[in-house]
Amino acid sequence: MDAFQAIMTRRSVRSYLPDPVPQESMDRILEAGRAAPSAMNRQPWHFIFVTDGERRKALAGGKFAGFLTSSPLVIVGCSNKERSPKWHAVDTAIAMQNMVIAATNEGLGTCWIGSFDEAKVREALKIPGEYAVLAMIAVGFPSNKPSLTGAIASVLRNKKAPEEIASREEFGLPYRKGENVRS
C-alpha cells in the first residue's frame, strides 16, 4: 500500500477484534512517529504504548472513548511543553498522524481520541508535569461489528469539495481540481 492509498482508505475504527497488535507492527508504527519532522528537530514527543487491560480501562473515561477497553493497543501521545514551548503540540500531532498512516499500512484500524480526562490519564500512566497529554490513538484489527458511534460517523463522513476548503493564490479565489494556473 502506498502512502496516498493508506491516507484515502483510513477510517476511524471503534470496534476491534481481541487479537493483540504484533510487536513488529508496533515497532514500525513507532518508527513512523520518530521519522516525523519537528521544529528545530526538538522531537518534543513521548509515546506510551498501552496494552494492559486495566490501564486501558483507566483511559476509557472520556465521553466518546468507552471503546478503548476493547482496543488491544492505545498509544498515548504526550508533548513536552518545556522542550518546545511554542510547537510541542503541532510536532507531536504530526508524529501521531504518521503513526496512524503506518498502522493503516499494517492492516490495522485506528481512531484518534481527543475525549479524555487529562488528569486521570496523567495519573494512570504516571506522566510527568512537563508533558501535556495531547491525544490517544486506539489501534487494533477492525471487527466487522459496527458500533453505534461508528455508524453515526459514517453518515457524517462526506468530505467537503476542494473549492470549499482551499483557495488558490489568495483567500477566496477557489481552488479547482485539475485547473492549471498560469502566473
From TrEMBL:
GO terms for molecular function: oxidoreductase activity. InterPro entries: Nitroreductase, Nitroreductase-like. It holds the Pfam family Nitroreductase. The keyword Metal-binding does not apply. Residues 7-60, 67-140 form the Nitroreductase domain. The keyword Cell membrane does not apply. Keywords: Oxidoreductase. PANTHER family: NAD(P)H NITROREDUCTASE YDGI-RELATED, NADH DEHYDROGENASE_NAD(P)H NITROREDUCTASE XCC3605-RELATED. Belongs to the nitroreductase family. This is Nitroreductase domain-containing protein. The lineage of its organism: Archaea, Thermoproteota, Methanosuratincolia, Candidatus Methanomethylicales, Candidatus Methanomethylicaceae.
